[in-house]
Write a structure and sequence with these properties.
Strand content: 25-35%
Number of strands: 15
Shape: globular
Largest sheet: 7 strands, mixed
Length: 265
């Protein structure tokens, strides 16, 4: 068996990594030449980590040892510094699949928060697609931009516009629209204008009353139809020897998702 490190596994200067301790706690850090990472009593030199393979055990001789990895999307999002609560991975998965988001599409995102969903959408549309985000708050827009720059690198397929979505969009004939704002009903007329025939809108709402309000708006609309609403629950399991049971804590309600289709004009 070759002892060479695969180029895809090699950790690089400037990359975001997680260090997982023996209790499974994850620590989000960035590798920078000449810098050190401090985790409690352990101090790790970045120069000794850069070039190592993902999955390496590091911290030999320190008070604690860690497994070093690039974070998956699901691991990254809970660790982000954020001005607003993000849409977590369990809901993002349903948005991408029920929204049928794929490479090459033009997608509008209404409300960016810290950019957690934006990262997933940018990956999904790919280099051949186009993602345009509308955000009314400059501080949220700045936070999302910083997070995408830090954790996704160059994303030329993404554009962010600081504007109230209720004033309308520059784009028309778009494939998909994702809405994450407190009053989704208020942007419904603009969604109807911008979506192409057959296009899909996905609305994330934290409360059941907001979900019902948008569902009712779709039923009253002559432009939108086929509304469906979902709630996703996620329960992890504890597996250790003969002890196999659900974890005591689960990711229950985070929000509701409602999808609808643009009917032909």
């Amino acid at each position: 068996m070759s002892s060479l490190i695969s180029p895809a596994s090699c950790l690089l200067d400037g990359e975001t990594v997680i260090l997982v301790d023996r209790r499974g706690r994850r620590h989000l850090k960035r590798l920078r030449c000449g810098h050190r990472l401090t985790i409690r009593a352990s101090v790790l030199a970045c120069d000794q980590l850069i070039g190592r393979a993902e999955g390496s055990l590091v911290g030999i001789g320190e008070d604690e040892q860690f497994v070093i990895l690039r974070p998956s999307y699901a691991e990254l999002i809970p660790l982000l510094e954020r001005p607003a609560e993000p849409i977590f991975a369990k809901d993002v998965g349903l948005i991408l699949t029920r929204g049928d988001i794929r490479p090459g599409q033009t997608v509008l995102e209404i409300g960016v928060g810290c950019g957690a969903l934006t990262m997933a959408l940018a990956r999904a549309v790919g280099a051949s697609g186009r993602l345009v985000s509308y955000e009314i708050r400059e501080d949220f827009a700045a936070e999302a931009t910083a997070n995408l720059r830090a954790h996704e690198g160059d994303t030329p397929q993404w554009t962010i516009k600081i504007r109230d979505a209720r004033e309308g969009f520059d784009e028309t004939d778009v494939d998909r629209i994702i809405v994450d704002v407190p009053d989704a009903v208020s942007v419904t007329p603009r969604v109807e204008e911008a979506l192409r025939d057959g296009g899909i809108v996905v609305v994330y709402t934290p409360t059941v009353l907001q979900m019902k309000a948008f569902h009712d708006a779709v039923q009253a609309s002559s432009a939108l139809g086929l509304a469906e609403s979902f709630e996703v629950l996620e329960r992890s399991w504890h597996i250790e020897g003969q002890s196999v049971r659900p974890d005591h804590r689960m990711v229950a309600h985070t929000g509701f998702l409602t999808t609808a289709r643009r009917l032909a004009r």
